[in-house]
Design goal:
Blueprint lengths: L9 H25 L3 H6 L9 H20 L13 H17 L2 H4 L6 E5 L4 E5 H26 L6 H5 L2
Antiparallel strand pairs: 1-2
Helix pairs in contact: 1-3, 1-4, 1-6, 3-4, 3-6
Length: 167
């Protein structure tokens, strides 16, 4: 049985983003119960040259929607990257999930051979859809979701692997 691009992309992004949203909600409860300032968490980074927690969440959503849009031949929604609270990050994740779920499998299936161009700050990368998904977007997506999860754990939010995995 062949695996389709729709099966190996959107459901994976959606499940992990739902797990991330659940972790963010637990962080909200944790910070609220203790009277902690959420701004300190949103700005937290493990090392000076790493993205902040808020940016980790933003980039994770960007990889999910950007990859899906390129594979579907569609325009990805654009977000301002101006979230200042956990509630706003939850909303960003949830609107990303809603958009991902609006993409029809037929838009993605067959995209493994589609030529795509990824533009970075200093270059253009040309590749096939399958390479975009498996060798660029999915690894980057997991990196940023995992880093966000680890920052939450490091800052005392009581979450575990089941939370990360999502429902």
């Amino acid at each position: 049985m062949a695996v389709s691009m729709s099966q190996i992309s959107v459901p994976v992004f959606v499940r992990r983003l739902n797990g991330l949203a659940a972790c963010l909600k637990k962080a909200q409860a944790h910070y609220s119960a203790r009277g902690y300032d959420e701004a300190s968490l949103l700005a937290y980074r493990f090392y000076p040259d790493m993205f902040s927690f808020a940016r980790q969440v933003q980039v994770a959503t960007d990889h999910a929607k950007g990859c899906t849009a390129m594979l579907a031949g569609a325009e990805a929604p654009k977000y301002e990257d101006n979230e200042k609270s956990l509630a706003e990050l939850v909303a960003r994740v949830e609107k990303t999930v809603a958009w991902l779920e609006s993409v029809k499998p037929a838009q993605l299936d067959g995209s493994e051979t589609r030529d795509v161009t990824v533009r970075t700050r200093d270059r253009e990368l040309n590749m096939k859809g399958i390479d975009l998904l498996l060798h660029r977007s999915m690894p980057n997506f997991y990196f940023h979701v995992t880093t966000a999860y680890n920052i939450l754990r490091h800052n005392g939010v009581e979450i575990g692997k089941r939370d990360f995995m999502g429902n």
